[in-house]
TrEMBL record:
Domain NADP-dependent oxidoreductase: 16-312
Single Gene Ontology MF annotation: oxidoreductase activity
A Gene Ontology cellular-component term: cytosol
CDD domains for the chain: Aldo_ket_red_shaker-like
Name used for this protein in its record: Aryl-alcohol dehydrogenase-like predicted oxidoreductase
Residues annotated as signal peptide: none
Source superkingdom: Bacteria
Amino acid sequence: MQHRALGDSGLQVSAITFGNWLTGGRPEDAGDCIRAALDAGITTFDTADVYGAPEFGAGETVLGDALAGRRREGLVIATKVCLPTGPGRNDRGLSRKHITESVTASLRRLRTDHIDLYQAHRHDPSTPLDETMAAFADLHRHGKIGYLGVSEWTAAQITQAHALARELRIPLVASQPQYSMLWRVIDAEVTPACARLGISHMVFSPLAQGVLAGRYRPGRTAPDDSRAKHARGGRFVGRYISQAVLAAVERLRPIAVDHDATLAQLALAWVLANPQVASAIMGASRPAQIADNVKALDLTLDDATMTRIDAALTDPEHGDLVERDPAKTAKPFDVMPAWRW
């Protein structure tokens, strides 16, 4: 397993991070997958207080249970705060109250006394950023969090937060955006800003919700066990399931074959070729997926291969199928649909 520095800090994260967004609520699946991730050399685990079913926090609970008894010093545990975890107005956002209460609950569920990377799950325009950063600084000084990150923040928001973090002497070193061959909205603004500020990406959905793994085929119905049929996953994967995009993914298959790789391995290798990416967050519903996908670390994609990939993602009728608009960065949490409340 490769390890890479997270931003300009001394923290090393595994190049593949295990994420338990959808598997968090099924202990019988998630526990086996987490143990398989450890066996594959993965040392970094990403979750959030909002992950899991039938109730929020289940993802953290499953992760904490699966990691119990492991050498804590050898692990990097990341979780998040912001999205709604209850019906009340203070059960969400980045106020001091919600951050303080959320981190206490996360520590209990994760069965640990500190969180290595604590991330603001979305930007919160309803709370002054000074209040948010001061709350994070207090947690850092008390040893409850080691490093700070953000997820799906714009370049301007990250730059403002980083300036406050420097004043407060807390290490803001990570950004967790969505990023894949098909979704490159961070390239124009967020990535240059992060490079300038010494912030690394830990990217989610590098397989575009399974589309880049060849999970869906042109002209065929989505498999019953796929994310497209999942109540929560379906609203994310739906943006990719067009006949033009699925046909483009089929054009990627010969490129993968030429590298003796699967489509998933090719997609992960493409993401990890970006020097600003410290780690790609990979979910799994079966342990075998993990052992297979980590082989992406053995792939090296040269310039000619990168050019072939871009050509495959261009459609004669629809043109460039890659989403590049920086305005497509996820909306702040207060305009997102709540999953339960």
